[in-house]
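quick one
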Amino acid sequence: MAFRDPVDGHEHLALVLGERRQDMLVRVHSECLTGDVFGALRCECGQQLDAAFDAIQREGSGIVVCLRGHEGRGIGLLAKLKTHALQDSAGLDTVDSATALGLPVDVRDFGPAARVLGYLGVRSVRLLTNNREKVRALRSHGIRVSARVPLPVGPNDHNVRYLTAKRDRLGHDLPQLRVQDAVAQRGQGAVGQPGHDGGQLAERALAGDERVERGVGEQLEG
Ligand SMILES: [Zn+2]
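structure w/ zinc ion:
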């Protein structure tokens, strides 16, 4: 189903599988042309979208809300590609490359997703995301998030710096990166040193009151 949001004016898409009910699996996906359509390896958007489809297919029901106007966390495609160029030329990460260009780090509005879900009659969701901020954003727009279901997408050589910045600077829950840290530390002869702060942060957050379901990758293996 397609929607035109009355506030942001963008046309958004909802892909619905199965009967609609409360607490169904929902992925609120920020559009990423380079990752979703062309399979760019510098971010994990396309892999997350695939993992969300897989999880929903396995469960037999779920919704993917694809939000337009969310390119580059809301700065737009042109600006996003400028940050990519700066990342390649100056070695800046996803946060610093935006601020160096005078751009905001995240200006996404999740109100349209809440309005789409409201129209579909789904007021309580199990949200497929590694991003706790997205949980907070949806709740602020009146959607109950009864559980967060992580999407543990494996890092690669092209996106590991991007994912590390998302974990350490934007608070995403990416425990799979700890393996990469361990490998990097071994490579530097630093075996036995304490784990990365980002990993410890994630563990503390997971121990809080947030209900986290087992990740999709773990479900696959279990
Ligand atoms: Zn992307």
